[in-house]
Write a structure and sequence with these properties.
Blueprint: H1 10-15, E1 24-27, H2 34-42, E2 48-52, E3 68-71, H3 78-84, E4 90-96, H4 101-105, H5 131-137, H6 140-149, H7 156-169, H8 175-182, H9 191-207, H10 209-223, E5 224-234, H11 237-249, E6 268-270, H12 280-285, E7 293-299
Parallel strand pairs: 1-2, 1-4, 2-3, 4-5
Antiparallel strand pairs: 5-7, 6-7
Helix pairs in contact: 6-7, 6-9, 10-11
């Protein structure tokens, strides 16, 4: 399990749930099962845990425990599956939004620029659209917006133009072919950062990550019982902004609605005003945890 993924902020995120031994909890990003194991260790015999993951590889890590139910699905369908399992309310929901180390280290999935492979990047391998499909079918404006909004790349328009030019000669199908296009936009001292941003943009688009995150968080508010906790770990500013805004206002824009008397109308109380980040020791032991940010909120 350690080989699959080392969970970031493991104890801090589970502590944030304030677990009741007989409660019902959800780990919407099961992955290697690290967070789920920690939650189960704190539950009593009547407690219940649901683990969501859309990647078939995660099923290999399923925990054999009568208190655990694995749901192979994107977490954007959270409400549907709780209805299916006849669960009205839950006591806590945990989300670790980072891509599993397993995905970055799998040479065949196309998530990393370290390996030459097909440009896939699908978390759910039954989904139709791959990263290669996007590079070969989106028009210049769509590609430019993608790299600017999801990769936060200033040269997004030039990258889009270069992709359009390259694919007129030959379809872009592999990581090495995409890296060849990106070569002119990557200075040696910032090469890894720019490539990471470009790959992030493609991955977000392939998996519709930000839309799915927004839907999951909004459903989570409805699914939580009063006093229930939502514990979310994000890894880049786009995710963190959505989490922060929904926690404080219930919507993506972060605009707080007030009642006639000026009191804010919100369903959540923020538990940690200051975002929680990994200790120096954790960052040293698990370098991929360096960008992790934990926010915790409680249903009121």
């Amino acid at each position: 399990m350690t080989d699959y993924h080392i969970p970031a902020l493991l104890y801090e995120s589970v502590e944030g749930l304030d677990i009741k031994p007989d409660g019902t909890y959800i780990d919407v990003t099961f992955g290697g099962g690290g967070h789920s194991k920690e939650i189960l260790s704190r539950l009593g015999s009547s407690g219940k845990l649901f683990g969501f993951d859309q990647d078939e590889d995660a099923y290999k890590n399923v925990i054999h425990d009568d208190r655990f139910v694995f749901v192979r699905s994107n977490f954007r369908y959270l409400s549907n599956y709780l209805q299916y399992y006849q669960v009205e309310k839950v006591d806590g929901i945990l989300a670790d939004l980072g891509v599993s180390s397993h995905h970055f280290d799998d040479e065949e999935r196309g998530f990393s620029f370290r390996f030459d492979s097909q440009l896939d990047m699908r978390m759910n391998r039954y989904a139709k659209q791959t990263a290669a499909d996007i590079l070969n079918s989106y028009d210049e404006e769509q590609l430019s917006n993608l790299f600017y909004l999801y990769g936060e790349l200033r040269m997004a328009r030039k990258i889009a133009s270069a992709i359009i030019f390259a694919r007129q000669k030959k379809a872009i199908e592999t990581v090495s072919e995409f890296l060849e296009i990106m070569e002119r936009f990557t200075l040696r001292d910032k090469e890894k950062k720019v490539l990471a941003q470009a790959f992030q943009a493609l991955r977000i688009e392939v998996n519709q990550e930000l839309d799915a995150l927004t839907e999951m968080l909004q459903q989570s508010i409805d699914c939580l019982t009063v006093g229930g906790r939502l514990s979310v770990i994000s890894y880049h500013s786009l995710e963190d902004r959505i989490v922060k805004n929904i926690f404080r206002s219930g919507n993506v824009d972060g605009k707080i609605t007030k009642d006639f008397y000026g009191n804010p109308l919100t369903d959540l109380k923020i538990i940690n005003r200051k975002v929680i980040v990994p200790s120096e020791e954790e960052q040293k032991n698990n370098p991929r945890s360096r960008s992790a940010k934990l926010r915790v909120a409680e249903k009121i």
